[in-house]
Amino acid sequence: MGLAKRIIPCLDVTAGRVVKGVNFVNLVDAGDPVEIARRYDEQGADELTFLDITATSDDRDLILHIIEAVAAQVFIPLTVGGGVRAVEDVRRLLHAGADKVTINTAAVFNPQLVKNCSDRFGSQCIVVAIDAKQTVWGATPAWEIFTHGGRKPTGLDAVAWARKMQGLGAGEILLTSMDRDGAKIGFDLNLTRAISDTLTIPVIASGGVGNLQHLVDGVKLGGADAVLAASIFHFGEYTVEQAKKHMREQGIEVRL
Amino acid sequence: MPVLSEVADVAIIDYGMGNLLSVSKAFEHVAPQSKIIVTSDPAVIAAATRVVFPGVGAMPDCMRELKQRGLTEAVKQAAASKPFLGICLGMQALFVHSEEGDCAGLGLLSGKVRRFPAAAMRDEHGQKLKVPHIGWNQVHQTAMGAKPHPLWAGIEDGARFYFVHSYYAEPASQDVVAGFTRYPFAFTCAVAQDMLFAVQFHPEKSQAAGLRLLANFVTWDGLR
After folding, report:
1. Is this prediction's ipTM beyond 0.85?
2. What is the nearest CA distance from A183 to chain B, expressed in angstroms?
3. Considering only CB atoms, which chain B residues are within 8 Å of A1?
């Protein structure tokens, strides 16, 4: 027995509500963030991730209040991301009760931000989020990174980028397949395996979970250290506890 | 000399390193009647009934911040004189030396802090183990003398706690080891010496088991 594989429910938050979309668009209301966080904690979630998908800066402070409220009631690790552009953004989120902060778009435009943040706060709290899409560059399959919530291509190779982020002090990678996000057909296992094999830091697989076997595959075939899912939990299809029991039946060590 | 208006039941040391809000919220949750003060004032720390020394980040920054804020002596005195709980970096800093930045610690415990060695990070199936060690791992309590340490009361042996770290403490003496964890080898995740108790994991983030440990600390008289 040793370290358990983690199940991380993800809450996309905007205007103070949890929402869920398909391929980053068509958002549907999924409920109150504090209420949902408490429910997942009771079900045995190992960690919670909040992604602030608010498009405008006006509502930025809302996420701080949400994190403060959750941190006063839920005593498991909280990761927060979305719109993080500066060291000061990271400081404010950590101060509000976040344990880890994810940096996505800003890392592409300013990779030094990852180093500055990990030097200042420790690499254990800096998660670099990568949104990647399968592409064709030469003969081998490859994945290109997109920014701005998956809207802008960058021409960057996801595997090389992940290595670079590890070198700059990222403590963990949150890897989302944009091809799979919301499609409920399972993780992009080749992408997950390629990134996990090349890194020495943990990888959280994200994007595409439609059933419990997908979570198992992410760990066993993709080599993920943690699996992240949203819609299968938000709409009550499965509880986190059911997911863990299924993983344990398949021989994966979990916290139950 | 300022007059202390209130004496803290629990003083949480603020030296600019860490998730102080998470730690204080967790104490407020388990001890709603207690006076919990987050402080960087040596006088408040000296007057407190019990002291918590949290911390995340890097060891050289930790030692520098303690020094700059004039807290080094306050931490040492508290650790030697009253119920004292070190968490994560707050455990590592108690040792003589850390490999992280080749840095001297407070020297309250003999031993050193080492990085997980890349070459050893394989599980029994040959799978690569990642560093940082992030997530929920089992804490095996060690029998210290005739009975288990009071801070383990009501916590199952082998219960899972939340870890996030790349370095681990290696005490010079087995006598201070209160708990160990395997990743993949056994490393010390809890130490106890007199009224000092320190853990590598994060009780404030370890749900029921962690809250129980904090509740035990709040009522601990410092005796075995």
Report:
1. yes
2. 28
3. 138, 158, 182
**Domains of chain B by start residue, with CATH:** 10-219 (3.40.50.880)
A32 catalytically annotated = no
- Catalytic residue numbers of B read 88, 202, 204
pTM for this prediction: 0.95
Active site residue A181: no
Alpha carbon separation from A249 to A216, A226, A256, B55, B138 (Å, rounded): 10, 17, 12, 37, 19
Our CA-based measurement puts residue A111 at a distance from the nearest CA of chain B, in whole angstroms, of: 20
What distance in Å separates the CA atoms of residue A228 and residue B105, rounded to the nearest whole number?
38
- What is the tens place of the pLDDT at every residue in A71-104? 999 999 999 998 899 999 999 999 899 999 999 9
Relative to beta strand B95-98, strand A17-22 is unpaired
- Per DSSP, the three-state class of B175 is helix
Q: Which is catalytic among the residues A131, A181, A188, A225?
A: A131
Does any CB of chain A come closer than 8 Å to the CB of residue B132?
A: yes
Question: Would the CB atoms of B164 and A77 count as touching at under 8 Å?
Answer: yes
Average pLDDT over residues B146-158: 92
Q: What is the pLDDT of residues B184-200, one digit of tens each?
A: 999 999 999 999 999 99
Q: For residue A24, name the pLDDT band (cuts at 50, 70, 90).
A: low
What count of other Cβ atoms lies within 10 Å of the Cβ of residue B156? 12
Tell me the pLDDT band of A23, cut-offs 50, 70 and 90.
low
